[in-house]
Design a protein that fits this description.
This protein is of the alpha+beta class and 222 residues long. It has a single domain, classed as Nucleotidyltransferase, domain 5 (2-Layer Sandwich), CATH 3.30.420. A four-stranded mixed sheet has the order 3-2-1-6, with helices on both faces. It has a three-stranded antiparallel sheet with strand order 4-5-7. The longest helix has 19 residues.
Length: 222
């Protein structure tokens, strides 16, 4: 099966009531179909507005949404993964970060309101090495489709049942831990970076920094 068409492992979970689709991001679908509840007000006394950003495999989408008005602003940006001959699938980490800041800023500019909440969703199985002190990425992001940790999983196959009992997950390169181990092993171009990185391997942590940066760089509103 080509890397572009790789399937999700059978053990991966779906969000209840939300269709998993490349063309309909989880977060956007979930927010748009939230059950109606009493409208809360912000500190300004008006309707609460949520900036929801879904950073996906091939793109990033942002919407500004409120219980009272629905979607009042949106923006999209394309992300371009690289499919490598050795089974690797990676994307430039800076491109991911810039896509979050760009779509978030444009969605807010279109809405004409300052969001009260910033929500960020992304693929938790994607990992990278990055410097927590500076926020600088030290490696490309290994996308969920990346299969370069397959040999590592084969070496640990005998431990598969024990790992499944302890974690509830199958031993598969899809998940984060094998990718982290691959980053730390010799024989790959990022091994020394992985060995020096003791924390901050999850993309959710790396992109989470962008929420603070986004709040400080939102476009001025009239």
């Amino acid at each position: 099966m080509p890397a572009q068409e790789a399937a999700y492992p059978a053990s991966s979970q779906r969000l209840p009531g939300v269709t998993r689709s490349r063309s309909s991001p989880w977060l956007v679908t979930a927010v748009a179909t939230m059950p109606q509840r009493p409208v809360r007000t912000s500190e300004r006394g008006d309707d609460v507005h949520i900036l929801a950003i879904d950073q996906g495999t091939s793109g990033t989408k942002a919407i500004v949404w409120s219980p009272e008005r629905g979607v009042v602003g949106s923006a999209e940006a394309t992300v371009r993964p690289r499919y490598l001959a050795d089974g690797g699938v990676e994307v430039d980490a800076r491109e991911l970060l810039e896509s979050v800041l760009d779509t978030g800023g444009r969605a807010v500019a279109e809405s004409g309101v300052r969001p009260d909440v910033v929500a960020l969703a992304n693929q938790g199985e994607t990992v990278l090495a990055w410097d927590r002190a500076t926020g600088r990425a030290l490696s490309p992001a290994m996308v969920w489709q990346d299969r370069r940790a397959e040999s590592l999983c084969r070496d640990l196959a005998a431990e598969g049942p024990r790992l499944a009992r302890a974690t509830g997950l199958t031993l598969d390169p899809y998940f984060s831990a094998p990718k982290m181990a691959w980053l730390r092993r010799t024989g790959n171009p990022y091994a020394t970076l992985g060995q020096r990185t003791t924390r901050g391997l999850f993309r959710s942590d790396y992109l989470g920094r962008s929420r603070r940066k986004l709040r400080s760089t939102l476009p001025p509103l009239p």
